[in-house]
Amino acid sequence: MAGSNGERFFLSSDINLPVTLRVESLEGDLQRYTEATLKNATDFALAEHSPVPDLFVECSLYIDGVLFGLPTKTRLAPIEKPYKWNEMITLSAKYRDLTATTQLTFTVRNFLFFLCSLRKSLEQWRKKSLQVWDVSYPRQEVAVGGASFRIFSKKKELKTGKQKLRLWRGRIADGAVVSSTPGKVPKHERGELERLDKALNKYERGQIERIDWLDNLTFKAIDRIKEEESKRIGQKNLHLVVELLSFMHPVAFQDLVLQSPRHQLVVIPDPEVGRQNPCENKQIKLARHVTRGVIDHELKPSITDRKEIARILQYPPTRNLNGEERQTLWKFRFSLTGEKRALTKFLKCVDWSDATEAKQALELMHKWTTIDIADALELLSHAFESEEVRGHAIDVLERTGDEELQSYLFQLVQALRFERSDKSRLANFLVQRAVHNTELANFLRWYLNVELADVVYAKRFWLVLEHFNESVAPPMAALLHHQSELLAKLCTIARDVKNVRGNLQKKIDRLREMLQGIMNELTSFEALPFPLDPTIMLIGILPAESSVFKSNLSPLRLTFRTVEGGKCRVIFKKGDDLRQDQLVIQLITLMDKLLKSENLDLQLTPYRVLSTSHEEGMVEFIHSTPLAQVLAENKTIIQFFKQFHPDEEGPFGISSPCLETFVKSCAGYCVITYILGVGDRHLDNLLLQQDGRLFHVDFGFILGRDSKPFPPPMKLCKEMVEAMGGMDSQHYSKFKMYCCEAYNILRKSSNLILNLLFLMSGANLPDISSDPEKGVLKLQEKFRLDLDDEEAVQFFQTLINDSVSALFPQMVETIHRWAQYWR
């Protein structure tokens, strides 16, 4: 096929050939690894005397995280340099079968034949120095290291040619969609060697023009650089070199399932897109010559220039500036120092490789008017590497109060990934603020504790946590330690309850039995801060008021006693990653504050969620009823409200405040779930409180992902509209008015919300980590920043009308009810 510019390409769905590759060699030093392995071989009496190791590579193919076919192994190679195989591997899958998230996994293993003595003690062997061996003992496979590799790029182009993959020592490669053993080094960790390897790969694929005399000089220089770098940093990492099959033209991904006779739009990567034009860069450098600095001081933008600058300042944080836009901002930089929104855009137009230009930009940055917190958060993203720029963001954060800082603490902890050192100013700032505030200390400790599971940045988070533990006062440290002990005991209980065979009542009986028996110390203990809300002090659990939910994971519903004599109910989950739910609830809480600051209270219910590890956490329990149960027992929502708020003179026989609360909460969650792209909505994860508040739970699908086909743009079911009196009622008109007003208020703070999600790009959350940039763009699209307020109102009203009239989602809801019934 050919694109619009004449460039030819293939579609992956048209390639009926098996996936083929060549496993070439292993680079690095195995000596330290082998010594460490043999030292750990304590089960064998004389393992250290005579190991006979051999290396081989096990290759597997994972499609959407599921193993496809059987693993393929290379021949054995002796464990001595050079470690080479040069073996072709042909897998059972064909290119047409692959998906965009297909991964190849490589695990380098070795066979160790441990030669054991014949029933004589080690002391006897040493005394007599006998050399009798029994070689019948089975060989042991030991993982040298593993790496996972995506076969399609982010632009959905098939990768070809040589690939140098970093091995994770002692680990078996996993084929998860979000792999914990990525073979490619992250951009921020790449050094000169990685850059040269990438350039050589392009050269071998023919993407760099061959010039013999210049190539010879270049290869000699590359060899010299590699030798110097190896001497300087040593060969501490192992790398596996593989070569993928190359084709005559680029191969663009197309799903075979979605292929149809009609014409489809296929995006073909253009190697020139995104690359800087050297002529343009030279022109910019000439235009920015420092000798023109005096003239630039007095330069003012014209009307046309002001319009252009205003347009640029409206760009979201993910938008890159082209050469013309960068030059415009640099040209009028002195006249922009009074515009706080312009600082982040100005810093993006700076050439930081130019020392003179960078120095001038930093001097100007300190003269700039104070920026908002949203812009300060953007300066802490991976888009800004300068320590001075990131330090300027900390200067802004230091002026914020503890309550506001807590609203962004989750993202600030994630931003530690983008720091250039383990002991950064951001880390010190977070620790110093937390040690003087119990709430900040509580959440900072748990946020850091969760990130210790990040294999890449575990050391960094551990050092910050260690700094926090050293700095915090002993009484507070003791309370936080008791929290950890409480969570550990709850994990033990949850595991035991889940393993109980039988009906739900048996699980509940087991929970109460443990609380009154072997775990009776949990019924009364010294006061400690509630992890979800440190302002509440817990003193024990009430076994009689604790229960278990009917679910595969058997979550615990626990009732705590508080120092004030009250009760606090919480859901404890074991085996579930709550970090994405925690993020969504944090954004809902923030949006609630933004709406209330504009005098619009939509009666939201931002309950608390705290992830204490990647597989456990706590959720605040709100007394409520699933909408599915409400309709099953009462037929309509109005009948449900009549039980608690009957009023013969009120609308539909219920009190006006109750109906008003329902209308407002429906509007608030319709807007928020639309903006965040919340999916998998059904009548079991919409909950209703007795006072009229409706709220959503379970946020496993966000940013447009949905488990059901053809989801409506607005999560609004017909039963909700009927409870308002139908589409022609005044209450439904008020609902639409609240929706449009809330939408425009949140659009004003789009920059803050986008930056908060932008900072989460490094977190391994299911719906963000796969393509962080795409996720932010999806969120940005929902704000429709290209529309003014009046146009946004018309747009949102159209969305509401389209959602109410959607018939297919109602059919899916019926199917879901049947599935729940038979389950």
Structure description:
The chain is α+β, with helices and mostly antiparallel strands and 823 residues long. It folds into 4 domains: 10-184 and 237-252, Immunoglobulin-like; 286-472, Phosphatidylinositol 3-kinase, accessory domain (PIK) (Serine Threonine Protein Phosphatase 5, Tetratricopeptide repeat, Alpha Horseshoe); 477-575, Phosphatidylinositol 3-kinase Catalytic Subunit, Chain A, domain 4; 624-822, Orthogonal Bundle (Phosphatidylinositol 3-kinase Catalytic Subunit, Chain A, Domain 5), CATH 1.10.1070. It has 29 helices and 22 strands. Strands 13, 14, 15, 16, 17, 18 and 19 form a 7-stranded antiparallel beta sheet that branches. Strands 3, 4, 5, 7, 8 and 10 form a 6-stranded antiparallel beta sheet that branches. A 4-stranded antiparallel beta sheet has the order 6-2-11-9. Strand 21 (686-688) and strand 22 (694-696) form a beta hairpin. Helix 13 (402-414) packs parallel to helix 15 and helix 24 packs across helix 28. The longest helix is centred in the middle third of the chain and has 25 residues, at 474-498.
